[in-house]
Amino acid sequence: MNERNSEAQSGEADKKTIALIESIAAQVRADIEAGKLPDLKFPVRALDNVTYDKARGYLELGDAEKQRTLTVTTAKSFAQTLRLMATSRAMVEHNDFATKREVYYISKNWGDCRFDQQAESDATMDDIEAMASKHGLSREQLRFYPESHGGSVAGRLTVIDRNPATGATIEIDCANLGTGAYSIPRSVEHLGFRTDARFVLAIETGGMFQRLNNHRFWETARCIIVEMGGVPTRATRRFIRVLSDMHKLPVYCFVDCDPYGFTNIYRTLKAGSGNAAHVNRFLCVPQARFLGVTPQDIVDFGLEDATHPLSATDIKRAQDALDGDPFIMAHPQWIAAIKQLLAMGVRAEQQALAKWGLNYVISEYLPKKLANASGFLP
Amino acid sequence: MNERNSEAQSGEADKKTIALIESIAAQVRADIEAGKLPDLKFPVRALDNVTYDKARGYLELGDAEKQRTLTVTTAKSFAQTLRLMATSRAMVEHNDFATKREVYYISKNWGDCRFDQQAESDATMDDIEAMASKHGLSREQLRFYPESHGGSVAGRLTVIDRNPATGATIEIDCANLGTGAYSIPRSVEHLGFRTDARFVLAIETGGMFQRLNNHRFWETARCIIVEMGGVPTRATRRFIRVLSDMHKLPVYCFVDCDPYGFTNIYRTLKAGSGNAAHVNRFLCVPQARFLGVTPQDIVDFGLEDATHPLSATDIKRAQDALDGDPFIMAHPQWIAAIKQLLAMGVRAEQQALAKWGLNYVISEYLPKKLANASGFLP
């Protein structure tokens, strides 16, 4: 049991964010005063600038850079970029935040400098985020928050937060929320944790989460359960990552046995996505392991008659993973599992275990799987 | 401040559920023993059997019935219906529950009686639900739980739940969850509440919910805030309904100013949907009122330059509402508001208020609106 001094850590990050923004602004100002055209440099956010290092464990942005020099044609986007950085700085100073959509509307008061479409402000924010990520600062530290819902959490965990108005510490006991759960906030950078759990179980569906919560699976299994609700949102991924890092907790992923579960839900949680490679270093959970459902589980747990044939989309997704997904291609065990699934020609949902009784998953499946965690797919 | 004895109430509902299932089973058995072909009667679940009574306030199922008599061709579906009712009974007795998907998989162990597609088990469950609804029993009381996530809640509310294992009372103080929130469980029938709030604010987007929560809007405004995340799920609607009924709390709805916000989000919360009319009586919140954003707000709060043109889909949705939505057609103020929106040719999101500053919504918009709650659209 330990906990971090979360206030001190967010204070450090805030200083770093402001220092980064000030140093860029100072350089632009110095260039202008010296009669030079100022420029801004951003990492290239494109798939051909994404690499996968098995040891590091997530898809990451390479070193290619693009340069935005102040010219007649770039004057508007140059100014917009600086104003967005100033917005970020002001939010750090006033302890506030904004969603992408709010940022777009803030610009409506910038006169000629306003964004005409949200797609423009989104792209500019992505550039700033990518640049900040190279300095170890996440989007949340810039105070740009995601719109999406954070997942739900229950189990042997106390979340340490603070009253945003007074700064007073608030402790939330996730073992004491009844049939409800703790809803993860959109930014988790300021949170601390206290736990005696042995692992984190990340669950695909809300229904399975509710089952494990109502039967207090986390109490006897000594764990923390997290509802992902399909592909986990940024807030959910970051929450699991920080919690796991801070307390050296293994993370086990419990999803459907189909290509979407393997390559979209699990792969996104563990190694991130190619489209937003600049944030993967903060969001990915490289320590995650795949508890199941695996193709071999369909055989081992007698689920053959509770499967569905693979659809054309399933088959294409599986082939694409074998042919082009750097994470899958780096792991022979995943290649073998996906080939096995293709050979079987079927998929199985995690609810298929209900064939043996609603709580078979609690009394048989999970205990058997957890007894052999070293055998989990990587 | 008051609270109900939630345990006693759920016990009553459980007895009623079992009595209903037993009476149907007894009738089937009596028919068979008397050499008669047994039959089961269900309400017709189709749009032409849906009515809207302005006084009652929600779309409801009419009295048309369909009859399923046991014959050679109906033997399988007849047996499936009875087995599903037996499953419901067993879940009540063992204090368990199942999602639609789990119910489908349970049937995999029913031999010839198994469902081949989830669509079949879903339709059979809908029939049973519709029948039970005529006896005042909701789907949740049959122990069929929705898969979908419940929304998030924060504010001046203590939720009274119980430890599902020991039955011990658990109290969750929704004013003490920091930047996080309380995640609504999939069934709320067993919950009790204690509150000194003056109203419930139901919010469309997660971003706006997080803003109001981080700035503890609910503290000074003395309210409870609920995140709907688009069209509210069944659990979210039921939660708001029970909370509002029990404590006579007004419910104010804060969504985007567009036809989707009016006729999908707000209308579903208040009057329900035609497709699932048999559950509306449990889920709708007829006492809800529309706080905004209204077409007139675009003018009154100077948001003209933060709007977007109505799309073809927006215009069609607005016209369909004027021409065929029984809820809209029953309320002249809604007809006028939608016509005003069509005449203006634009829509506005709730985030558009950020044009005047990120927290304008807290310092200006909401206080001004709340000072004139009697003027809210019905």
Kindly describe this structure.
The structure is a homodimer of 378-residue chains. In chain A, a hairpin with a 6-residue loop joins β2 and β3. The first copy, chain A, has helices at residues 6-33, 75-93, 100-106, 118-133, 206-214, 217-221, 234-247, 259-271, 277-283, 295-300, 312-324, 326-329, 332-344, 360-370; strands at 39-43, 50-52, 59-61, 65-69, 98-99, 144-145, 152-155, 157-162, 169-173, 181-183, 192-195, 199-203, 223-227, 251-254, 288-292, 308-309, 346-347. Chain A starts with 5 loop residues before the first helix and ends in an 8-residue tail after the last helix. In chain A, α2 packs across α4. In chain A, 44% of the residues lie in helices and 17% in strands. In chain A, the strands form 6 sheets. The first copy, chain A, has a 6-stranded mixed beta sheet, with helices on both faces. A 3-stranded antiparallel beta sheet of chain A has the order 9-8-11. A two-stranded antiparallel sheet of chain A has the order 1-4. Chain A has 378 residues and is α/β, with parallel strands linked by helices. Chains A and B meet through β5, α3, β8, β10 and α5 of A and β5, α3, β8, β10 and α5 of B.
